[in-house]
Amino acid sequence: MSTAQATSKAAAAIDNARAEGRAALIGYLPAGYPSVEATIAAGIALAENGADLIEIGIPYSDPVMDGQVIQAATTEALAKGFTVRQVFDVVAGITSKTDAAVLVMTYWNPVVRMGVDEFSRRLAEAGGAGLITPDLIPDEAAEWLAASDKYGLDRVFLVAPSSTPERMQRTVDASRGFVYAVSIMGVTGARSTVSTAAKDVVAAAHAAGAERVCVGLGVSTAAQVREIAEYAEGVIVGTALVAAIRDGGVDAVATLTKELSTGLTREDA
Amino acid sequence: MAHAPSGNADNNATEAFLQGGSLRHAPGPYFGSFGGRWMPESLIAALDELEETFEKAKNDPDFRAQIADLNKNYSGRPSLLTEAKRFAEHAGGVRVFLKREDLNHTGSHKINNVLGQALLAKRMGKTRVIAETGAGQHGVASATAAALMGLECVVYMGAEDCRRQALNVARMELLGATVIPVTSGSQTLKDAINDALRDWVANVDNTHYLLGTAAGAHPFPAMVRYFHEVIGEEARAQILDQVGRLPDAVVACIGGGSNAIGIFHGFLDDPSVKIYGFEAGGDGVETGRHAATITLGKPGVLHGARSYLMQDDDGQTIESHSISAGLDYPGVGPEHSYLSDIGRVSYEPITDSEAMEAFRILCRTEGIIPAIESAHALAGAIKVGQRLAAEVAETGSGTAQDRIVIVNLSGRGDKDVATAAEWFDLLDKDSAESEIGKEGEQL
User: Fold this and answer.
1) Does A143 participate in catalysis according to the annotation?
2) CA–CA separation, B109 and A191 (whole Å)
3) Is B311 on the interface with A (CB under 8 A)?
4) Is the pTM value of this prediction over 0.90?
5) DSSP β-ladder status, B304-309 and B34-38
6) Angstrom distance (rounded) from CA B245 to CA A150
7) What is d(CA A5, CA B436) in angstroms, rounded to the nearest whole number?
8) Per-residue pLDDT tens for B134-151?
9) What number of C-beta contacts closer than 8 Å exist between A and B?
């Protein structure tokens, strides 16, 4: 992975968890769902109940990597008038109250529209750790590589079961903070079992030199968290948390986070 | 017109031609600063496999022979080049020739691309193809190719489009395809592409995404163009044969831009030929209800490519509007964005009203009912013809009859009869067709 890891907020959060003998928990929430205030409150609840990193999604008109639960949430946020610059309010609202590393997950066009440098500057100013970019591959990321270096931001690229060894190496080399291992060939959404492919993807990323690999897509229960915590540095939960805030608000997010975090401790720790 | 003042188009093109050599056969992934692969990592391996298979196939005499055979004996190529003498009277009196893609099997240029891609799917060992469709033309073409080659076919179509194009849904089902109504997002063509991409991510091992236009991630823009290049190659040879010289202008309609890039390609390296793309101006570009992507859009990334894009200040895609479902797309192929920026092709909007007037004129003067998409090209040809005639009058060199315009008549209008009948108020108020037409008009 790239240099400047010493300044990586995401890496520091994962390393803190590792020092406690456990994997890190990363929780996803879409900004502005059901409101900007609720996202901030839910983000704080995530951090206070066991999440080490928080991933705030920017609602986007064409979310090709998202399943129905997240699509419905982000579509509603947009219908209620969410604007991209509000994501910085959400990030600042959470980082001012917690120690959690806060990353923004975004499809690339909203960043392009604002300007990659300007977006990066404002994210850093809000206390954000960096970006997770589901539809940006390192091959197209020259502007973002430069801006993330300039503002000291983490850049989390995705690797997948279909990634070739060459692409795995390239993506691991370009990433900073951690590498996001997609557990399954598909879109976001709760699944009853974790694909066996996940373990192989993580192993391939480790073999390519990644020190921190976190697994996402389809993870919704403490048992699944426990399974992944055995071989990955972090576990990412999205859809289950979105369903929780939809059905039970901030309290439900707190309860689910507490439950999920029971799966983090490794049995050999 | 925003990016390509027509007065400079041919000068700039000449310059590009002299400096950079040929504009033809641009291989991608980039066309200037446009194109690329703005896609999830999960799909990159499939794009690599497709690119490799396509590059090999292009250079394989067997593959080229298969395509040539299908084009001739299945699609009915070469399509005719028909002089439209009575229509031409409305275009300043210049000579107008129609490239008759409407005469192809399935009724439009779409068949060229689906046959090529279905062959590639077979080469890759894929057993299933998926496609997106707006009005249903590409869905019908995909279902056709899948039936011919024994592939499973699933077509994603906006739920609202399914309802107002019920007959096209039935056509696809008759051909053995499964049509899935898309209820996500704005439930339009762009959302059908989103759902097709979601399907592809989950089923990429056995599935090829048969994208219907010259947009998307590399290699789609260059590959879809390749399968449509036959349009321009035929048209160029036919005009030389019939008239003995190149045309003064070539015009086509632009949604994603596949028929246009196909015919343009034959003439890109002929600096004397002016090239025009006509976008859907909807209710008028000043109303905000249009699909004039290059005219008014800004560069952005959507569905895998950097290109001009209809988007708001936040980078959210704006819904497009056009009477023509086939042009109703907020993006455009990246090669068109490039050809606009370098000034080789001029892109202009045509309103619904202008297109429908040209539709009416062609029906009455030539006995040809065009697709409403193609009617945008016809309306453009009227404007270009009148400009050429005005030039002739001004310079006093020759007559309008010495000027030649080729129009790509990309499809036939059978599918649009209900919409047109409603537009021209030909239906009884309470007829079933009247209801369908009303819905079509609201596209």
Assistant:
1) no
2) 42
3) yes
4) yes
5) antiparallel
6) 57
7) 61
8) 888 899 999 999 999 999
9) 115
